[in-house]
């Protein structure tokens, strides 16, 4: 498990592909990572909508280049 600290931003992902959709990234000092909340539909991201534009601390794991958060807290 790792912890990322940064800002959650809504962004258009997978541009010009069949899976193009609005998703979320976490902007950190070490780069930007696509973030999903464990248990949420990755195309709806109901939980992440609550954190849009917020600085957070998120615990989770990297999986196929995406950060899967199991706990997110506002800083």
Structural summary, described in words:
The model has no long low-confidence stretch (mean pLDDT 94). A hairpin with a 2-residue loop joins strand 4 and strand 5 (66-74). The protein has a five-stranded mixed barrel. The longest helix has 4 residues, at 46-49. The chain is globular. The two termini are 19 Å apart. It has one helix and five strands. The chain has one domain. The chain is mostly beta strands.
How are the SSEs ordered, and which strands pair?
Elements: E1 2-13, E2 21-28, E3 31-37, H1 46-49, E4 55-63, E5 66-74
What does this entry show, briefly?
This protein has 1 helix and 5 strands. The chain is mostly beta strands. The chain has one domain.
Let me know the largest β-sheet. Answer: 5 strands, mixed, barrel
Strand content: over 45%
Q: What is the radius of gyration computed over CA atoms, rounded to a whole number of angstroms?
A: 11 Å
Which whole number gives the mean pLDDT? 94
Distance between the termini: 19 Å
Q: Strand order within the widest sheet?
A: 1-2-3-5-4
Structural class: mainly beta
Low-confidence spans: pLDDT under 50, at least 5 residues?
A: none
Shape, principal axes of CA atoms: globular
- Total strands: the figure is 5
Features:
mainly beta; 5-stranded mixed barrel
